[in-house]
Write a structure and sequence with these properties.
single chain; 347 residues; alpha/beta; abc type-2 transporter like fold; 16 helices
Length: 347
């Protein structure tokens, strides 16, 4: 009950100072706007060159797919030139017998020619080919896709579709901002002493503070999912909850170690850059990729893609790592809270 009282008070404060609207409504409206206004140049729709008929079989399914933009070529030479000039992200040659072999469970091989094998666009094209083959054969992965091109810099292609997982990371990180601001507001308004001397344990106080940040960030994250027409599985919900809790715990830690609002704002802004920029640029540089792996955002994003793709086993591994971050942030926050005098005076 005492923990719930802390959560309720913080949520009421958020409603009064419009933080609720900023954290909940803003990201939701922006996500729906951006994703609904995406056009043919959107990164989520890679350009696939097709050598072969698009009037039947795999060609027909690909031509009606919403996952790729299809361009037909009369011969392989023209498709290869278009790939070299950057007009397409990859191309395939569909023989006359390919669709028949797929339908007859002969497990044929189709070669996807790309510029870089380990990239998001290549992964999206692979997925579109797999889905088209499933449609033709009515079963799981009825053909073997051989990807040929330059080897990517990261060394593995494990990305799902679209920017939505990255956007969910962004909304989950709002808990970092809210929890940090909540603690600093207590200090600036000199109400922190009353909170620390209230008949609640440090654990109850920490859980209450983290809980309010979690509620706001998770509602925002869930609203983004539902607003974009995604029906999340229980595994995805648990994963997103773990991410929101981890960032809320990190926000409490930042608020505890900072002595005033200016210091907390600077620390929060720096953390946002340190965490989110490597995540956003990880496909452009090995350095950014390696830096991103040290942050909870990386595992939140990758696990979200796994769960959205139905890869429960791989997603569970990311969830366990995310829970490790949550445990570490919780221990550090509770360790700092063991000395109330130090919190009041600042580091």
């Amino acid at each position: 009950m005492r923990t719930w009282a802390i959560i309720k008070r913080d949520l009421e404060d958020a409603l009064r100072n419009s933080t609720f609207l900023l954290i909940i409504i803003g990201p939701v409206l922006c996500s729906v706007l951006f994703f609904r206004l995406s056009n043919d140049d959107d990164f989520g729709k890679p350009k696939l060159g097709l050598v072969g008929t698009r009037q039947e079989g795999l060609g027909l399914v690909l031509a009606t797919s919403d996952s790729v933009l299809l361009t037909s070529f009369e011969n392989e030479t023209g498709a290869r030139e278009a790939l070299s000039d950057g007009e397409v992200d990859g191309f395939v040659v569909l023989t006359d017998d390919l669709s028949r072999e797929v339908a007859e469970d002969l497990f044929p091989t189709v070669t996807l020619q790309v510029v870089e094998t380990d990239s998001l666009r290549t992964r999206l094209i692979e997925r579109a080919l797999e889905e088209a083959a499933r449609t033709v054969a009515g079963q799981e992965i009825p053909l073997d896709i051989l990807v040929e091109g330059k080897v990517g810099r990261r060394g593995e292609a494990d990305w799902g579709e679209g920017l939505l997982p990255s956007w969910l990371v962004f909304t989950a990180m709002s808990g970092l901002m809210f929890c940090s601001a909540s603690v600093i507001e207590e200090k600036d308004h000199r109400t922190w002493l009353g909170v620390l001397t209230a008949p609640v344990s440090m654990v109850e106080l920490w859980v209450g503070k983290v809980g309010s940040g979690f509620v706001l960030s998770f509602l925002s994250t869930l609203a983004v999912l539902l607003g974009n027409g995604i029906s999340p599985s229980i595994y995805l919900l648990l994963h997103l909850m773990a991410g929101c809790l981890a960032f809320a715990a990190l926000g409490i830690l930042v608020g505890l170690v900072c002595s005033n609002g200016a210091a907390a704002n600077a620390a929060t802004s720096t953390l946002f850059m340190v965490i989110y920029i490597p995540l956003a640029l990880q496909e452009m540089s090995v350095l950014f990729y390696r830096a991103a792996t040290f942050t909870p955002a990386f595992y939140l994003q990758r696990g979200t893609r796994y769960f959205m793709d139905g890869q429960i086993g791989s997603g569970t591994e990311e969830l366990m790592i995310l829970l490790g971050f949550l445990f570490a942030f919780a221990l550090m926050g509770l360790w700092v809270m063991r000395k109330p005098a130090r919190i009041l005076m600042g580091p």
